[in-house]
Design brief:
Layout: H1 2-16, H2 24-42, H3 77-113, H4 115-129, H5 133-144, H6 148-174, H7 178-185, H8 190-226, H9 238-245, H10 253-280, H11 282-293
Length: about 290
């Protein structure tokens, strides 16, 4: 009886969680992303030392006292890596959120209303996407001045067109559907039809793109800081830490551990994006369901 009850509990637990989220990559991405978000939220409670304090011997290799070693100014690298999560992770999430809002609104307007609205928005996206992403972000950041806020603004300039294009393409394919036309004939206003008929249908694909784009945003912001166009010293930011480590090749730990932090964040959100895509794609969900029943 106990075995039957435990089997039933496991079955009910599985039915509550989509199959795509129970894949090894989905679980790994969720665990790693949750850990970094907790590190960013808890902040000083987890730092073993002051990330800005120059209290220790310079360029000390990793040891029991300093797991990630110390940098060229005698600061604890582990504390600075943990503190960097409070900078990089929230800014990457903020960047993606702003890109979704701006690009989504413009894409909805272009796809639904068409005509001059569509032409204006699409020509603007073509203009931005005609330039290499990193180069354009560097130019904007350099013209605004080196700071984290300006780095986010520069990254935002090059990030929103992708959401505008995807959203516009989805809306163009949906606006001629029978249920949308039927609601318009029943007296739905353009805004009501857009809100009730169009937005729910484009939310899933846009969320998938956003989840995959968090890793790209992390790389872009870290790259700008690496080039000296983002965080300013002594701010603990992963990209600037890797940039500082270039001048100290013998102290390998100065660049390896911040680089690993960037790598794990990018991979975690990419895994989550893949799991979200599989969960929202009916064909993929059906394939996973057949594999599980076997």
């Amino acid at each position: 009886m106990t075995g039957v009850d435990s089997g039933g509990l496991r079955a009910r637990f599985r039915t509550r969680i989509p199959r795509a989220w129970r894949t090894p990559l989905g679980i790994t991405g969720a665990v790693v992303a949750t850990l970094w978000i907790l590190i960013a939220v808890l902040g000083p409670l987890l730092w073993p030392h002051d990330p800005l304090g120059q209290d220790f011997p310079r360029l000390q290799a990793p040891s029991g006292a300093h797991w990630f070693g110390t940098d060229e100014l005698g600061r604890d690298v582990l504390s600075r890596v943990l503190a960097g999560a409070r900078v990089t992770v929230p800014l990457a999430l903020l960047l993606v959120g702003l890109s979704v809002v701006i690009g989504g609104i413009l894409g909805l307007a272009a796809g639904f209303f068409g005509r001059w609205v569509d032409e204006t928005v699409m020509r603007l996206t073509d203009l931005v996407m005609a330039f290499p992403t990193v180069i354009l972000a560097m130019v904007v950041a350099a013209s605004l001045g080196a700071s984290l806020v300006n780095a986010v603004l520069a990254a935002l300039v090059v990030s929103w067109p992708a959401y505008a294009r995807v959203t516009r393409g989805l809306v163009v394919g949906i606006r001629g559907a029978e249920y949308v036309l039927a609601d318009r004939l029943l007296g739905f206003s353009a805004m009501r039809s857009l809100r009730l008929d169009i937005v729910p249908m484009v939310t899933g694909p846009v969320l998938i793109l956003a989840s995959l784009d968090i890793g790209t945003a992390t790389l872009l912001l870290s790259g700008l800081s690496f080039l000296g166009l983002g965080a300013k010293p002594p701010t603990a930011e992963w990209g600037s830490m890797v940039g500082t480590a270039i001048a100290h090749f013998d102290a390998w730990w100065m660049g390896v551990f911040p680089g690993l932090a960037i790598l794990t964040v990018v991979m975690a959100f990419n895994f989550l994006g893949d799991a979200l895509r599989d969960a929202l794609d009916p064909h993929t969900a059906g394939v996973l369901g057949q594999a599980e029943t076997r």
